[in-house]
Write a structure and sequence with these properties.
This protein is α/β, with parallel strands linked by helices. 36% of the residues lie in helices and 15% in strands. The chain is built from seven helices and seven strands, in the order E-H-E-E-H-E-H-H-E-H-H-E-H-E. A seven-stranded parallel β-sheet has the order 3-2-1-4-5-6-7, sandwiched between helices. Helix 2 runs parallel beside helix 4, helix 3 packs parallel to helix 6 and helix 4 packs parallel to helix 6. The chain binds NADP nicotinamide-adenine-dinucleotide phosphate.
């Protein structure tokens, strides 16, 4: 079983360490090579644009595809942007950047995999989403900052997963798509907000990584198109 991990942040790096410890075959594509791991298992994916994904997938031309692809790329803030607290703070530029980072990579992966898969290919594509992007879960997630661009782009990610799962049922019946809400994690993404968070709810990504891998290993085809928590329970869209 070969794994392709997208994103070298807190969870992506923890997944690579867990896979190395399990003796699995893995490749991590991200902006930074994970420390303490075999550098030959790293691919520098600096941008989330079509050409960068095409370059990554040249590695699989004529080679076996991974059987699990985990997309951990996600964007909540950067040096110039904090999550919006009021609608007046929303800009089309940051909304587009958020969509490109949070929703587009899954479709880029879906397109490149579709190009290389055959009708009998077996594969899971899992993207990390967030309950904060759930329309049905809005009541339970409505507290605190509005986070328009992040939440809208995670909602778009979830919709993309459902559409892709439906497309693959006919084209690639052995290939499935899910999105997973990992819960709060103590990673660089939450660094600027740590003072606002209940620290007892912050999970160590090294604890989340094995749970996510075990969840994916136990998936059944009927679960394709689902939005799940780490226990494998369906979450509201
Ligand atoms: N942490 C949480 O509490 C939490 C809660 C719910 C859901 N999630 C989701 O879980 C996933 C993993 O998050 P994490 O906690 O591991 O966050 P993280 O440490 O910030 O990792 C996110 C990764 O995405 C990459 N990235 C962001 N924008 C990019 C861009 N435009 N181009 C290329 N790479 C880009 C980052 O690269 P750089 O490091 O180089 O910027 C980083 O490798 C994300 O999808 C996140 O939304 C996290």
């Amino acid at each position: 079983m070969g794994y392709l991990i997208l994103g070298s942040g807190g969870l992506g790096t923890a997944l690579a360490h867990e896979l190395a410890a399990r003796g699995e075959e893995w490749l991590l594509a991200g902006r930074q090579s994970p420390r303490g791991l075999d550098p030959t298992c790293y691919f520098p994916l600096q941008e989330v644009d079509p050409l960068s994904f095409e370059a990554l997938f040249t590695l699989y031309d004529g080679a076996s595809l991974p059987t699990v692809v985990i997309n951990t790329i996600g964007l909540l803030s950067d040096l110039n942007h904090m999550p919006e607290r009021r609608v007046e703070e929303v800009t089309p530029q940051w909304l587009c950047e958020s969509l490109q980072a949070n929703a587009w990579p899954q479709l880029a992966l879906g397109a490149n995999l579709s190009r290389l898969m055959g009708p009998s290919s077996r594969l899971w594509l899992c993207s990390l989403s967030d309950l904060a992007g759930s329309l049905g879960g809005l009541e339970s997630n409505g507290q605190g900052a509005s986070r328009y661009s992040y939440r809208m782009s995670k909602a778009a990610l979830n919709m993309g997963a459902r559409i892709l799962a439906a497309e693959w049922v006919d084209r690639f019946p052995g290939a499935g798509v899910i999105t997973v809400h990992p819960g709060l994690m103590d990673t660089p993404m939450q660094q600027p907000f740590k003072s606002e968070l209940d620290r007892t709810l912050l999970q160590d990504p090294t604890q989340v990584a094995p749970r996510l891998l075990d969840l994916i290993a136990g998936l059944t085809p009927a679960q394709s198109g689902s939005f799940l928590d780490l226990q494998g329970q369906p979450l509201p869209w």
